[in-house]
């Protein structure tokens, strides 16, 4: 065998083994064929069939305005959770679309909650003012409790990520990366509202 190829083969094998060690429950469900759909690429979408969802996500945190929000507060309606931070370019790019969809579903069976993973309150508030965001964000930079609570659904460093939780607080869908098509998130929300019977 060509000696120059040997290190490349070893490197490829190491990458394969490392990839095999990481566990992503949503991706595993997709590979098993239990998800309803998958769109590859940036902004990839994974849907979790009703019978394949895990346990409800339990969380508690303090928003940029000092209010406490818990998972119990959100039970009974669909909750869209977006992980972001102010200097994240894809987060800035998707902010207006997320706000528009939030306004569309306000009082229609779904609400939005941000999770800011890097900023303190002044930066988060400035971001909201710049992009017209009206829904709250839990500040997670110090404790990381929200990231821990959702660790089975969000790969490390995957920001932005948007999750749709059903009325029982279980992850129903995930958009990994920037939201590139608002209509996809709108459809995911509508489908989850319909299955839960939370409205309409």
Give an overview of the whole structure.
The protein is an alpha+beta fold. It has one domain (24-196): 3-Layer(aba) Sandwich (Glutaredoxin), CATH 3.40.30. The protein is 38% helix and 22% strand. It has helices spanning 5-21, 25-31, 71-74, 89-105, 121-131, 145-149, 182-196; strands spanning 35-39, 44-48, 60-62, 68-70, 78-84, 110-116, 137-139, 161-165, 171-176. The strands form 2 sheets. A 7-stranded mixed beta sheet has the order 1-2-9-8-5-6-7, with helices on both faces. It starts with a helix and ends with a helix. The relative contact order is 0.19.
The class by helix and strand makeup works out as alpha+beta
CATH superfamily membership: Glutaredoxin
The CATH architecture: 3-Layer(aba) Sandwich
Number of domains: 1
Write the CATH fold name.
Answer: Glutaredoxin
Morphology call: globular
Strand content is: 15-25%
> What strand line-up does the widest sheet have?
1-2-9-8-5-6-7
Low-confidence stretches: 2-41
Report the helical percentage. 25-40%
Largest beta-sheet details: 7 strands, mixed
Average pLDDT number? 83
Order of helices and strands: HHEEEEHEHEHEHEEH
CATH class division: Alpha Beta
Q: What is the tally of beta strands?
A: 9
Rg result: 18 Å
Give the helix tally.
Answer: 7
What is the CA–CA distance across the termini? Answer: 66 Å
């Amino acid at each position: 065998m060509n000696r120059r190829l040997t290190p490349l083969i070893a490197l490829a094998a190491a990458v394969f083994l490392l990839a095999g060690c990481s566990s992503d429950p949503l991706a595993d469900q997709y590979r098993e064929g239990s998800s309803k759909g998958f769109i590859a690429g940036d902004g990839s979408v994974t849907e979790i069939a009703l019978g394949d969802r895990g346990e409800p996500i339990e969380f508690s945190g303090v928003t940029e305005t000092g209010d406490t929000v818990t998972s119990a507060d959100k039970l009974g309606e669909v909750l869209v959770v977006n992980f972001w931070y102010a200097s994240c370019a894809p987060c800035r790019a998707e902010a207006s679309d997320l706000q528009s969809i939030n306004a569309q579903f306000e009082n229609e069976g779904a609400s939005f909650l941000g999770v800011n993973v890097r900023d303190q309150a002044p930066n988060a508030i400035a971001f909201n003012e710049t992009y017209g965001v009206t829904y709250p964000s839990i500040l997670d930079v110090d404790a990381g409790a929200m990231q821990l609570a959702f660790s089975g659904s969000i790969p490390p460093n995957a920001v932005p990520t948007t999750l749709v939780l059903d009325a029982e607080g279980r992850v129903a869908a995930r958009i990994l990366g920037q939201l590139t098509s608002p209509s996809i998130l709108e459809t995911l929300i509508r489908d989850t509202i319909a299955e839960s019977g939370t409205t309409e």
